[in-house]
Amino acid sequence: MQDKIPFYKMVASGNDFVVVDNRRQVIKDATAFARTICRPHVGAVADGLLLFEGSKKANFKMRILNPDGSEAAACGNGFRCIVLYAHEVLKYSSSMRFESGSGVIEGHVGPKGSVKVQLVKPRIFETDSVIEVRGHRLHYSFLDTGVPHTVIFVEGLPKVDVVEIGKAIRHHTHFQPFGTNVNFVEVKSRKEIAVRTYERGVEDETLACGTGSTASAIISVLKGYAEPCVSVLTKGGEKLRIEMHKKGPEIEKVFLEGKAQFVYKGEYFL
Asked: What pLDDT digit, counting tens, does each position of 14-57 carry?
């Protein structure tokens, strides 16, 4: 019988993931497996691979691999999926702590598939800088919410060429050698913003990005555009809730909340 790996397909706010219980190291080459299983036509097609692994300092460890095989330190929507997976499939309690590349994350499963996670304390690098891209001077902010994000405020968000401009910023020399995710943000009100994101590693626009939505909400609050509890409208149409505790100019704690769900269960034949 050909070797096979059980997996779950999950989605949170339009971000879809393949989730595998890897506590017994059934996946030997995570990079190659991510490149294969996330591919269109020949794989399960996903924005990323989530590996559930053992941990000595938390309930478990989560690894995140992009479709290109690179490993990411954080993924807000992936965090919410892994928390729901741990609770529903592996029968962990509704509250848990787990390791990630960005640090220890706390998660809680609420009613009707709602999952809330506390992300690591954000690191703010630039809040009002200018970059030249394709002959245009763009005002931006740069911060780390587990992974690096550039935030740009715009008007007429649906008309923005997220892929071309996002790609140019992602590879700009200022953000090398690691590059950056890029978020285009339109302020709707003091309580709501809309966000579109170009994701590093996926190398395309995605329907949502948890850490990107969080980064956009943080900068919106720091600039006085929004209140500390922000609703984020994603391209996929779902709304995420970003709550933060602010102490002076510092963001001490930040929480991401939204729905996650299972799509299907399958077996991948090696």
From this structure: 899 999 999 999 999 999 999 999 998 889 999 999 999 999 99
- The three-state secondary structure class of 84 is helix
Q: Are residues 132 and 110 in the same domain?
A: no
Query: Out of 38, 75, 81, 229, which one is annotated catalytic?
Result: 75
- Kindly state whether residues 180 and 101 are assigned to the same domain: no
Q: Which of 58, 75, 12 is nearest to 211 (CA)?
A: 75
> Any catalytic annotation for residue 209?
yes
Q: What CATH number does the domain containing 148 carry?
A: 3.10.310.10
Domain identity same for 112 and 55:
yes
User: What's the total number of domains in the chain?
Assistant: 2
- Please state, in angstroms and rounded to a whole number, the distance separating the CA atoms of residues 101 and 166: 24
Instruction: Find the distance separating the first CA and the last CA of the chain, reported in whole Å.
Output: 11
83 and 206 co-located in one domain: no
- Type and span of the H or E element at 166: helix 162-170
For the segment 171-201, what is each residue's pLDDT rounded down to a tens digit? 999 999 999 999 999 999 999 999 999 999 9
Residue 232 near residue 239 (C-beta atoms within 8 A): yes
Q: Which residues pair with 184 in a beta bridge?
A: 152, 196
